[in-house]
């Protein structure tokens, strides 16, 4: 195939190596084949890693009501009657004793402490997807223009 612009098929004049031709005046002229390089744009698409969002691990504390049964004991006073005849000599009568007895009770003591329960880790991963990219590319079109002296 001929590489001369505008040539179709194998034109012997435009595709042959330099050949002498005669001008209408009879003077020989050497006609060189004309070549031109046509260019076009090519679209190249690549990817680049850019940040698009930030993630943060945040701990929030929530409270809940916990009901725990606790056994509580307390002392209580009981009056025991004993026969006064078996009392030692010199014992005071009860109304004169004035002794007080302190009674004790168990009170629940509530305390809390933070203990490690589980370790939480933020793991990132890649998800593959496709995207359509659209762009315009230019290319050159080669045309042949003949002047009045070249028509024939």
Brief sketch in words of this structure:
The chain is mostly loops. The protein has two helices and two strands. The protein has a domain at 1-37.
Assess the beta-strand content as a share of residues.
5-15%
Number of helices: 2
Q: Mean of the pLDDT scores? A: 80
Class from secondary-structure proportions? little secondary structure
For the secondary structure, the number of strands is 2
Report the principal-axis shape.
rod-shaped
End-to-end span in angstroms? Answer: 23 Å
List low-pLDDT spans: 6-16
Sheet with most strands: strand arrangement: 1-2
| H/E series | HEEH
- The percent range for helix content is under 10%
How many whole angstroms does the radius of gyration measure?
56 Å
Main sheet properties: 2 strands, antiparallel
Tell me about this structure:
The chain is mostly loops and 152 residues long. The protein has a domain of 37 residues. It contains two helices and two strands. A hairpin with a 5-residue loop joins strand 1 and strand 2. It starts with 11 loop residues before the first helix and ends in a 55-residue tail after the last helix. About 7% of the residues have low confidence.
